[in-house]
């Protein structure tokens, strides 16, 4: 597909993203979350399947964001890709980027009245590369692209000092993660009691924990359960982490994002990717293409 305008208006995108109305987003979300305990009509679908769960908050937050961008200086420059199917009336053919929205990441946790949820909004160029990342967690804290990268402590250095290494591991409940510690131990020569394995229910929170140095790395595995792969809107947070100095590897099968790795230095990322491969059946290893520090999340 060809586009008349190929230059993404990044400066204007950053300006507009920074003015997103956080107060209104949180007000909508928290009001609906509170009412969910008594009003089941606010659960629109997926009540018994957490991977397909949609609440009224998903819809209202997405509408708010679509209206905001449709009334901004960016109107007419973008196409919309969002988790929910509602769209605005932006029919311009002269677009240079895609607005990608996850209006409520961690919906299952949200339904349970927990705080592990948030909102992610990103800008992707027409080649599928994530160019800007804006991430809001339920506490009101925001982390974005553009923060200066900082030097990271490698797994090797932490292991030498006998410090704990904390990795977020996720697999949509396919149980591959149950074997993670053994595979990590072999590849990194570390004792099991020095490995802490987490599994955050929201990507935006896993990203926040990495951004604030409360996690050391992340490994999301392919699965035959749940969504099976990781849609682009689930990966918006990666843009902020790459700018922050983390190394990111995406394992792709065809156009699907099947394995995600985040680590402090490239050597750690490569070895953590190998840990992921060691956990997979042979046929899935062969089919996977590796993208290193290139956020082609392909939507």
TrEMBL record:
UniProt KW Metal-binding keyword: yes
Gene3D superfamilies linked: Fructose-1,6-Bisphosphatase, subunit A, domain 1 (3.30.540.10)
InterPro entries with a match to the protein in the record: Inositol_monophosphatase-like (IPR000760), LisH (IPR006594)
Residues that, per the record, bind Mg(2+): 83, 102, 104-105
Cofactor field: Mg(2+)
SUPFAM superfamilies: Carbohydrate phosphatase
Keyword Magnesium: yes
Keywords: Magnesium, Metal-binding
Pfam families, per database record: Inositol_P
Superkingdom as given in the UniProt entry: Bacteria
Alphabetized GO MF terms: metal ion binding
Protein name as catalogued: Uncharacterized protein
Organism classification: Bacteria, Candidatus Roizmaniibacteriota
């Amino acid at each position: 597909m060809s586009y008349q305008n190929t230059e993404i208006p990044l400066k204007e995108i950053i300006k507009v993203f920074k003015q997103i109305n956080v107060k209104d987003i949180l007000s909508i979300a928290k009001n609906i979350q509170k009412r969910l305990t008594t009003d089941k009509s606010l659960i629109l679908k997926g009540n018994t399947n957490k991977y397909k769960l949609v609440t009224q908050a998903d819809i209202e937050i997405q509408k708010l964001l679509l209206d905001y961008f449709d009334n901004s200086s960016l109107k007419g420059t973008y196409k919309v890709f969002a988790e929910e199917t509602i769209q605005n009336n932006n029919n311009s053919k002269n677009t240079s980027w895609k607005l990608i929205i996850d209006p409520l990441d961690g919906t299952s946790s949200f339904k349970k009245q927990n705080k592990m949820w948030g909102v992610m909004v990103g800008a992707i160029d027409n080649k599928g590369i994530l160019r800007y990342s804006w991430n809001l967690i339920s506490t009101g804290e925001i982390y974005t692209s553009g923060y200066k990268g900082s030097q990271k402590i490698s797994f090797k250095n932490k292991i030498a000092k006998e410090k704990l290494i904390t990795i977020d591991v996720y697999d949509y409940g396919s149980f591959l993660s149950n074997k993670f510690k053994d595979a990590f131990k072999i590849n990194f020569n570390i004792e099991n009691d020095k490995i802490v394995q987490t599994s955050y229910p929201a990507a935006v929170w896993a990203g926040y924990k990495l951004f604030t140095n409360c996690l050391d790395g992340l490994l999301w595995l392919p699965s035959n359960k749940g969504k099976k792969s990781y849609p682009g809107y689930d990966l918006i947070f990666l843009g902020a982490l790459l700018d922050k100095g983390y190394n990111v590897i995406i394992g792709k099968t065809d156009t699907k994002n099947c394995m995600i790795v985040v680590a402090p230095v490239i050597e750690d990322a490569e070895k953590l990717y190998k840990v992921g491969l060691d956990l997979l059946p042979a046929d899935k290893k062969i089919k996977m293409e590796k993208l290193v520090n290139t956020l082609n999340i392909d939507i």
